[in-house]
Amino acid sequence: MITSNINFASNFKKANLISITLFILSIFFMIFKGLNYGIDFKGGTLIELRAENDINETSIRDSLNTMDLGDINVKKFGKDRDYLIKVEQINSNDNNLIPEIKERLSKNLNTKIDFRRVENVGPKVSAELLESSVIAISLALMAMLFYIWIRFEWQFSVGSIIALFHDVVITIGIFSLLSLEINLSIIAAVLTIVGYSMNDTVVIYDRVRENLLKYNRVSISDIANLSINETLSRTIITSVTTLLALLSIYILGGEILRGFSFAMILGVLIGTYSSIFVASPILKFLKVSSQTLEKKEEKIVP
Amino acid sequence: MLNFTKINVVIIYLIFLIISTFSILNFQKRDNIYLDKKVNLGLDLQGGSYLLLEINSDSLVKEKIQSKVIPIKKLLRENNLNYSDFQIKNKKLLFKIDDKDKFEVIFLSKKNNSVNPYIENYRSFELDFTELENNYIEILFSKFGLLTINNSALKQSIEIVRRRIDDVGTKEPTILQRGEKRILVELPGLKDPERIKKLLGKTAKLNFRLVAENKEFGVDELISETGEKLMISKRIIMSGENLVDAQPSIQNQRGEPTVSFTLDRLGAQKFGRATTDNVGKRLAIVLDGNIISAPNINEPITSGNGMISGNFTFQEATDLALLLRSGALPTPLNVVEERTVGPDLGEDSIKSGLTSLIIGFILVIIFMFYKYRIFGLIANLALIANLLMLVGILTILEATLTLPGIAGIILTVGMAVDANVLIFERIKEELKTEKSSILAFDLGYSKAKITVLDANITTLIAAIILFAFGSGPVKGFAITLGIGIITTLFTAYFLARHLTSLIVLKNNNKEIKI
């Protein structure tokens, strides 16, 4: 059996300080370092290629530089002869561009080249994708807020939303710090993190509510501490199984899923941390007590 | 919570059996006539192209407003309205008029107004007009007039895109309208997306015009295929609309690929007359503003059959014939989004997706067995049942499985055990205080119920929003994640609970540990 008596509440202050620092740092990075948007949100062309002979990044870049394509980004992608080329927004109406690039590369590098994946997103579409992603994340947060508000009291709703914000912002902040690419699948990961973190928070909140009704005169920090401890083994086991599945995707799922699974792994770790160290202290801060619950009961049952 | 009536048990296992049976359909080799359902593979897994095309109606609107010039002038004359300084400005018409009020009455009459028709379902006229200074009037298309133009152009474009794609012969293409200006095209298993893009990128407006001798009124200066500068009369003798068929052919003398075409009756008449009257002159064949060739008219062509040559390769001749057969697009189409995955990358993705699924699954199963022993086994059975049902439902819905969709399944595997973990941990707590193990299990299940529901509904909300706002692959992820939650609840609360009850009730008198 996993321990039942860790004093989390005594560490709330320290943890909050860390959380606030990380949160501010994340926002700082987002503003000053910016996000590395993929072509989904920035527009442009992406080509994943596989060459028959050995080539290198410089030679690819050199042979494309003369084509006047704008900013070119070349990097290795998974296996030895696989490369990913990203080209800044170019005249997207040129239907001959892709074959031209292909011809030039195979001629200049003297090897057979196979384009395994080509993505091209025009500036209008990328702006729309970014907009709908922001709407989706905001809507998800609002829907969660609403759900918790119905199921619990407003203090819980506020607490869970702050925890969610914390998770989303820090995850994106880490992506900014590491210059990892933000694309559509990362947005999917962020939304799943929102769901997962909420899930974790709800489990603890459910227990807090139950304990508040059970122990009338105990302080909220003790109740929070008790509830966290009671649900701790579940929190750990579920995190472990989820992380096992995610690690399996991260290591074996191929290059395309790597960013997605990395974001999810970060999110699960941060989400687990936040439901203990962010969502719970907020209840204390908002002065939740047994009376808070009773008031609501009275309202519902006249 | 541990009591199941016989009927309940039968219903639970029947639901499980029926749904999970569907998952087997995916492994059958031959087509099943009775139940031909399968999970579709997304373009990222089977390879193929996704194209989002946008119509560009600017040129069309210009054309349409120009076509209003003559009817408007005629309308003004018929009603004895004096006008002057008639100009065509981009998408607007501008002229000076003496009697504005009379013009307004005529221009905005709802009955039999052929110049400015009233569109009933939008309650709006096709054209708007504004009064400017010095008695000038400006005419342009109204919002709904533009909408009507866009709509019909889009419908027509979709039809022509479909014809062109069908003609190339790809399997099971999807061609859908997206919004007011876009067409979504999905071409699974396509080997050469560039050819399709080339075919869709051409409007293919074909016309036959005479080569003029001097710079008389109404000529365009175009460069011929041999680099010669030619004056081409603006008068169109015949256009591509009059073609009923076009086929690539090889001209026998030189073995040169050409396109032979057949005209309809009206086209044959026009063409016959024009070639009879102009023997000895040159006839330019113009496609999208470029001269394909400008041969001499040696003799009148009255049969309604003709041939276009222009230094084609056979592929080019084939494609030109295809374009001419399918007709001209009303506006140019721009590719605003393209995603193409080659078939071998798709195969690699399936391989790595399945490998990570299997490994993730095994890891979770080992961990659960290590944590909960016999009850871990139950949770694992529930997990396997969960997967079978998940795939079964995907099959029933004939949903599309994408690479992120596989990730969604793996994530479901990781998170699905959560329901059982919540329940088992609760039971553990109850066992501490409760002496009767039956009662403890019963309490555990009923107390954990709300938490399990709450926890899963939040993830379900995220999945629904992802589905509503996500595109393509992300939607695939949302589908598997969402369905996974439902099957998780079913397996944890019905299957696993029943199996648990069997063990608990059997060991009625003994102490049970989790």
Report the principal-axis shape of chain B. Answer: elongated
Structural class of chain B: alpha+beta
The global form of chain A is elongated
Give the mean pLDDT of chain A. 88
What gap, in angstroms, lies between the N and C termini of chain B?
Answer: 18 Å
The CATH architecture name of the largest domain in chain B reads Up-down Bundle
Name the descriptors.
heterodimer, A: 302 residues, alpha+beta, Multidrug efflux transporter AcrB transmembrane fold, Alpha-Beta Plaits, 2 domains, four-stranded antiparallel beta sheet, two-stranded parallel ribbon, 11 helices, 67% helix, elongated, disordered C terminus, B: 514 residues, Gyrase A, domain 2, 13 helices
Written overview of the protein:
- The complex is a heterodimer of chains A (302) and B (514).
- Chain A has helices at residues 12-32, 39-42, 57-65, 97-108, 123-151, 154-177, 184-214, 220-252, 258-277, 279-285, 290-300, and strands at residues 36-37, 44-51, 72-76, 82-87, 113-121, 181-182.
- In chain A, strands 3-4-2-5 form a four-stranded antiparallel β-sheet. Chain A has a two-stranded parallel ribbon with strand order 1-6.
- In chain A, helix 3 (57-65) crosses helix 4 (97-108), helix 6 (154-177) packs antiparallel against helix 7 and helix 7 packs parallel to helix 9.
- In chain A, a hairpin with a 5-residue loop joins strand 3 and strand 4 (82-87).
- Residues 298-302 of chain A have low confidence and may be disordered.
- Chain A has eleven helices and six strands.
- The two termini of chain A are 43 Å apart.
- Chain A folds into two domains: 9-38 and 125-300, Multidrug efflux transporter AcrB transmembrane fold (Up-down Bundle), CATH 1.20.1640.10; 44-121, Alpha-Beta Plaits (2-Layer Sandwich).
- Chain B is α+β, with helices and mostly antiparallel strands.
- Chain B is built from 13 helices and 21 strands.
- In chain B, strand 3 (83-89) and strand 4 (92-97) form a beta hairpin.
- In chain B, helix 10 (343-396) packs across helix 13.
- The radius of gyration of chain B is 35 Å and the shape is elongated.
- In chain B, 42% of the residues are buried.
- The mean pLDDT of chain B is 89.
- Classes of the chains: A alpha+beta (302), B alpha+beta (514).
- Chains A and B meet through strand 5, helix 5, helix 7, helix 8 and helix 9 of A and helix 7, strand 20, helix 10, helix 11 and helix 12 of B.
- Strand 5 (113-121) of chain A pairs antiparallel with strand 20 (333-341) of chain B.
